[in-house]
Amino acid sequence: MLELLYQFASNTGFFLADYRHYLMAVIGCVFLYLGTAKKFEPLLLVPIGFGILVGNVPFFKGFGLGIYESNSVLHYLYFGVTTGVYPSIVFLGLGAMTDFSSLLANPKLMLLGAAAQMGIYFTLLGALFLGFLPKEAASIAIIGGADGPTSIFLTAKLAPHLIGPIAIAAYSYMALIPVIQPPIIRLLTTRHERRIRMAELRDVSLKEKLIFPVAGVLLCCFLAPTALPLLGMLFLGNFLKECGVVERLADTARHAVIDTATIFLGFTVGCSTQADVFLTPQSLKIFFLGSVAFSIATASGVIFGKIMNLFLRSKINPMLGAAGVSAVPGSAREVHLMGLKEDPTNFLLMHGMACNSSGVIGSAVCAGILWSFFIGT
Amino acid sequence: MNGLENISANNGWAISVLGAGIVFCGLAALSLVISRIHKILNFFEKRSSSRNSEVAAPPVRPAPKPTQTIRRLPEPKELVSIYRPLAQGLDEPFPLALLYEHAAKMDLPHTHISISRLREAGVLTSMGEGAFVWNNEIADSLTT
Fold first, then answer.
1. A76 or B139: whose pLDDT is higher?
2. Do B19 and A124 count as a contact with CB atoms less than 8 A apart?
3. How far separated are the first and last CA of chain B, in Å rounded?
4. A16 touches chain B (CB under 8 A)
């Protein structure tokens, strides 16, 4: 009987755990705390945080329990991550939620979305400098797009062994927008610039809204066909929303479909952070590079906004450049709140959303471009 | 291998410059396309409407007499009698936008000018912060 008890005890998590498991459990709890108490991107941090807890319960290898064991339930759920299925589904829902009117009314804001992607390419250089392999460097660099699904999609294609740390870094920095972006914006802009008012947006016709997803998918995917799984779904979702004849489908895409994909994406990404594969010096480097990527992306958007003002008659608020990263709607909201602090009657939210949505398109195009550079290498 | 050597060996400089250039050109092209969409649509709409009017216009028939009379702006006295029931239906103080909305729903003519005249006459008195009340004394003095 004692032998049986000892056998049972030796199979428990308490017996098998070491300090790394406890450390990861603490990290999972921090995510849950940030998501629930601080309300930092709760839709992402809650499933990821819980996934970190589940993924770091120690167990005997070979029982078919862990996410990296080929016959486990978690492994099958993780299939959606490693194949890039969940990110594509999330993009479908995102398209069905996004109103591109503000972007259509002021298309020059799309350039801020393009400028904010510069963080990706600076980080690529940084990752290569630190000794990462080219495919790993490209996967790390995409964190600068501040787009979780895009980061996961590209990493799944180029460096699947890094999905855990890259996804956690990408989502963490998205959640930390209120902490990271304001100091950079304040550093690069004057009070006068932060108070610049944007011209009122014109009304956008339904025809324009219908033509945009068609033109967008053709132009962007002809340019970078590898972005098709993301942009194809994004623009399909948007067409479903705008065409008005498939309201049921659009409604399902923006609610049930994206919610289901988000739960499984967040949870399995959290589970993939098993202590033995996650707590490595490489992960620390990835976190460092991720913060650099996000900061450079924010700064390059703001600086480009200032450069645009040198040539424009009707000035734009350079803070909007920070919303060019594709963290929807966090960065647009942050810019809006900063604008309100400087001038309580200056509403920048819709303009910020225009930059945000162009950032989504931009980071997906960047992912496609990077993937196409490394196809066959 | 790491450092600048790793960047050069893996074509990092070229990938970065080219990648940044491509994404910038791509989004600039998309921005250009979407900035033209409404202009192109307007052009086609104008063309089709002018064509329709050409087809619809009878060649020798005289122009039909206007069937809809031009609605004149009522006198202040009439304005008071038209807008009094609307204003009294609102909880005071009310925002002017709400009065505009109600007037537009009733299909009243020249709502903006009418309300502006009522303001100038003092019938609509500002209470600050965009809120207004109906001043019965001035309204009565206008109607008597």
1. A76
2. yes
3. 96
4. no
- Chain B CB contacts of A128 below 8 Å: 2, 6-7, 10, 12
Q: Does A134 touch chain B (CB under 8 A)?
A: yes
Q: Which amino acid, one-letter code, is at A377?
A: T
pLDDT value of residue B64:
55
Q: Same structural domain for residues B85 and B132?
A: yes
Nearest to B35 among A107, A125, A224 (CB): A107
Q: Which residues of B touch A358 (CB under 8 A)?
A: 27, 31
| Residue B139 domain flag | yes
- Residue A220 contacts B, CB cutoff 8 Å: yes
Would you say residue A35 lies in a domain? no
**Residue of B7, B15, B45 to mutate, testing the A interface (most A Cβ within 10 Å of its Cβ):** B15
Distance from B98 to chain A by nearest Cα, in Å? 21
- Complex prediction ipTM: 0.86
Contact A127, A192 (CB under 8 A): no
- Same-domain check for residues B93 and B137: yes
* Residue A46 placed within a domain: no
User: Residue for token digits 């098998």?
Assistant: A16
Give the Cα separation of B83 and B73 in Å (integer).
Answer: 13
Per-residue pLDDT reduced to its tens digit, A289-304: 989 889 999 999 999 9
What the block records as the tokens of A160 is 């699947």
Q: Which residue(s) pair with B131 in the sheet?
A: B95, B128
Q: Is B128 part of a structural domain of the chain?
A: yes
Question: Residues of B with CB below 8 A from A212's CB?
Answer: 34, 37
- Same domain assignment for residues B31 and B90: no
Check residue A184 and give its pLDDT.
Answer: 95
Interface contact B26, partner A, CB < 8 A: yes
Report which of A184, A150, A177 is spatially closest to residue A166, judged by C-alpha positions.
A150
Instruction: State pLDDT tens for residues A271-286.
Output: 998 888 888 888 999 9
Domain extent for A353: 66-258+268-374
Q: Does residue A280 lie within any of the structural domains?
A: yes
